[in-house]
Amino acid sequence: MGSITHTIRKARPLSVAVVLILTVSFIGSMLFVHHNHVLYDRTIAEVTDVRLVDESETVDQYGNEDRLFDQELDAVIRNGEHEGSVVRLTNQYAESGASDYRFGAGDELFVNLDAEHEDGLSGSVTNVKRDQELMLAAWLFLFSLLVVGRRQGLFSVISLGVNAALLVVFLQLSIAYAQFSFVAMASVLAIGFTVISLLFVNGFHPKTYAAIIATLLATLSAMLITFLTIWLTSGSGLHYESMAFVTRAPQAVFLAGIIIGSLGAVMDVAITVTSSMFAIYEKNPAIGRKALIASGLEIGKDIMGTMTNILLFVYVSGSIPVLILYFSNEALLGYTLSVNLSLELTRALAGGIGIVLTIPIGLFVTARFVDRKRWRA
């Protein structure tokens, strides 16, 4: 009991320090994004007054109805040579809000200024300054990870930041060294993602090493099957129109996307299977190899379907607006799906193959690690 009390007393100052650092960082970052106008080259104006000057109905050639609203905005310029001056802006938005915005007092906008005249400055809105909302969302995400995951949540944030930096470096290198294979570079990146993510979150532990090996082997196997299938079918039915302006070969970009896109789900399955098997062994060191593998297989079966569905939903969800557009214009079902979902469904199928292969590979790799642990014991 005394040792537990000592541990709590020892950990409390650290927890207070972490909370204090996070609180100061949160307040400081929010104050920064509210007062960082001087850092922007583009003119920023804050809306102070809004007037609705016109309202009309519109119907397009397909019978779709919408309402248009015209606004007059008075805004105060927050940076540049006209800082503090009032500018008059106009804005038109639709009730549907498909590609425009309704502005209100307090909104900060990027504007283009017209020539100054007798009535003062006038201009047009080019975009919305969103860094305040983005910063708040980022902090909510960070706090959620820390509250739920605590230490592991912190390492998850760190690994996420490192992986994001790696992705940026990868994209820059792929442009600078276009002569190198895009798929090979993406494969190296996938190895980096796997090692960094699993080591940061789960630490240097045999279950982590088993998950890394299972992830890489399953991803490699899924890629070989996908590549062989595309080669045997000559890529028939795959539409690369969305990659028409990519300076790389669209097939290479597509395969690289499969490698990186399916990696997260494969890693999740791998660490779930390996962690569960190690937990079972640690609870019952006398369990036999066959019984351990059978237990891991049951766990793998439980998560296999849900993870495959997640991949499908993630890939297909991005195409929903385009699908609605095609169906609204009475396009045929087969044509619509083949043009818009051929790549997404292929990615989902390749990722699903990776998930399924992860389970047997993870079972036998983990069983080998557990056997080594038995021999050393």
TrEMBL record:
Cited InterPro entries: YibE_F
Domain of life: Bacteria
Transmembrane segments annotated in the record for this chain: 12-33, 134-150, 157-176, 182-201, 208-232, 252-281, 310-328, 348-370
UniProt keywords, alphabetically: Membrane, Transmembrane, Transmembrane helix
A Pfam entry, by short name: YibE_F
Entry annotated with the keyword Transmembrane: yes
The keyword Transmembrane helix is assigned to this record: yes
Protein name per the record: YibE/F family protein
